[in-house]
């Protein structure tokens, strides 16, 4: 009896020990900026493979890591950036509508943000983005020639889209331009790497006496919510927001509502004729339109050409 009791007690102790061990080894959730700092410090260190099993990853992210040869393989892909010199503290934000942590990193060759996308505490993505480390202290050299105001665009079905209204100095009223990005999820600057063509346009035009309104695309802000919608058309991606932007702009004190133009770049330019038709039904119409680098070929033909090229 004593021997049996001893075996039972030993078994219970073994089960307890195993459960504690499993609990101790359960993958951690990445929930705070401090967690992101810790993750990136190891990722950029000598043994990024130590992160595997220690942190929670989504199934899709786990499969991607495996395909790239583990986290060590992913870290090697950053070799072109050089060696890490400065890593600034992480901060929370959103990318494509998903919670994310941005870690500004200055490498010996290039400066970028390392971006950790997170879903319910599990790491869903690790990518690079435009370096944001200078934002806290940056001062535009031409800021004495224009004003920049945050102006969100309401989207009744989703919420709102963050936007920026760049205004010339003075009381106005000023002519204004609404900028529409090209295809894909794009922020208000139409940023690609360190290039921000829409910001450059906005600042240059404002210095020339023309106000500019630019805003983040729906697919950039609400990417997760729209990812499962297979019926998205130009109406959802451009028309409704372009019309709404013109109406919003016309209500601003320093804007001349009779001199509002719409500029579309690439696919945004292809959407301009449809935007023009929709604005004919709106209370405030556009004075004119600009199609910048729009394709003269039908969209289905253009898509095939691009896929073949890639």
Molecular structure report:
With 310 residues, the chain is an alpha+beta fold. The chain folds into 2 domains: 26-130, Nuclear Transport Factor 2, Chain: A (Roll), CATH 3.10.450; 143-309, Alpha/Beta hydrolase fold, catalytic domain (Rossmann fold), CATH 3.40.50. Helices cover 35% and strands 26% of the residues. The strands form 3 sheets. A 6-stranded mixed β-sheet has the order 6-9-11-10-12-13, with helices on both faces. Helix 3 packs across helix 4 (70-76) and helix 8 crosses helix 10. The chain is globular, with a radius of gyration of 25 Å. The model is unreliable at 1-23 and 136-142 (pLDDT under 50).
Low-confidence stretches: 1-23, 136-142
Q: Tell me what portion of residues adopts beta-strand conformation.
A: 25-35%
The main pleated sheet reads as: 6 strands, mixed
- Tell me the overall shape: globular
Structural Rg: 25 Å
Count of individual beta strands: 13
For the structure shown, list the relevant keywords.
13 strands; 26% strand; Nuclear Transport Factor 2, Chain: A; alpha+beta; disordered N terminus; 11 helices; 310 residues
């Amino acid at each position: 009896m004593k021997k049996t009791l001893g075996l039972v007690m030993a078994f219970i102790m073994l089960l307890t020990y195993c459960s504690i061990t499993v609990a101790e080894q359960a993958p951690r959730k990445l929930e705070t900026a401090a967690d992101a700092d810790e993750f990136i410090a190891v990722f950029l260190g000598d043994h990024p493979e130590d992160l595997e099993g220690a942190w929670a990853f989504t199934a899709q992210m786990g499969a991607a890591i495996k395909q790239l040869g583990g986290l060590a393989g992913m870290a090697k892909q950053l070799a072109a950036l050089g060696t890490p010199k400065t890593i600034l503290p992480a901060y929370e934000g959103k990318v494509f509508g998903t919670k994310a942590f941005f870690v500004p990193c200055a490498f010996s060759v290039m400066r970028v943000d390392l971006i950790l996308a997170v879903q319910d505490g599990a790491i869903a993505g690790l990518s690079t983005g435009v370096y944001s480390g200078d934002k806290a202290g940056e001062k535009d050299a031409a800021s004495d020639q224009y004003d920049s105001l945050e102006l969100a665009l309401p989207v009744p079905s989703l919420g709102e889209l963050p936007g920026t209204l760049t205004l010339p100095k003075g009381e106005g009223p000023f002519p204004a331009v609404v900028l529409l990005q090209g295809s894909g999820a794009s922020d208000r600057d139409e940023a690609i790497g360190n290039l921000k063509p829409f910001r450059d346009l906005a600042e240059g035009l404002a210095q020339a006496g023309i106000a500019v309104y630019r805003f983040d695309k729906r697919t950039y802000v609400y990417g997760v919510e729209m990812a499962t919608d297979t019926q998205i058309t130009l109406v959802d991606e451009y028309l409704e927001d372009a019309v709404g932007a013109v109406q919003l702009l016309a209500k601003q004190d320093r804007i001349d509502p009779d001199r509002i133009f719409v500029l579309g770049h690439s696919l945004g330019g292809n959407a301009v004729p449809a935007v023009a038709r929709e604005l004919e039904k709106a209370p405030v119409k556009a004075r004119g339109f600009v199609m910048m680098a729009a394709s003269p070929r039908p969209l289905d033909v253009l898509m095939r050409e691009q896929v073949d090229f890639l």
